[in-house]
């Protein structure tokens, strides 16, 4: 039995409040464990704070640069990467080069295309490589991986 500390009436052991006055009853002291059971706490998984909320994809930038580049349109990867000025330089520069290349090919009766084609592919590779370097210098846009 538990004695209410407010009104001294007796209550059952499992009562949390006095039956008579409603005062909260002191909990009955249970057996005291000298050594509380120890258990292994699983370490909480550490979540990396998301610094970059709208991280762009490096792969998407590469695809946007190389795929249209094969059709004569360079610079879209750059524009996607947020570097519009470089993208426009690549776009316009490459279009000018294609016009020059076509003229060279026509003037040389197609023979010049042997030179024009590797230079065109080289320009796409150059643009893609420098864009890749650009994305690595801007982890705030593309993350560190
Ligand atoms: Zn009471």
Quick recap of the structure?
This protein is an all-alpha fold and 145 residues long. It has helices at residues 58-70, 76-80, 84-107, 113-137, 139-142, and strands at residues 2-3, 10-11. The chain is built from five helices and two strands; from the N terminus they run ββααααα.
Overview of this structure, please?
The chain is mainly alpha-helical. It has a two-stranded antiparallel sheet. The mean pLDDT is 85.
Query: What is the H/E string?
Result: EEHHHHH
Main β-sheet description: 2 strands, antiparallel
> Could you name the ranges where pLDDT drops below 50 across 5 or more consecutive residues?
none
Work out the helix count.
Answer: 5
> Cofactors and ligands present?
zinc ion
Tell me the fraction of residues in β-strands, as a range: under 5%
The structural class is mainly alpha
As a whole number of angstroms, the C-alpha radius of gyration is 37 Å
Query: What form results from the Cα inertia axes?
Result: rod-shaped
Q: How is the largest sheet built, in terms of strand order?
A: 1-2
Q: Compute the average pLDDT.
A: 85
Number of strands: 2
Termini distance?
67 Å
Portion of residues within helices: 40-55%
List keywords for this structure.
145 residues; mainly alpha; two-stranded antiparallel ribbon; 2 strands; 49% helix
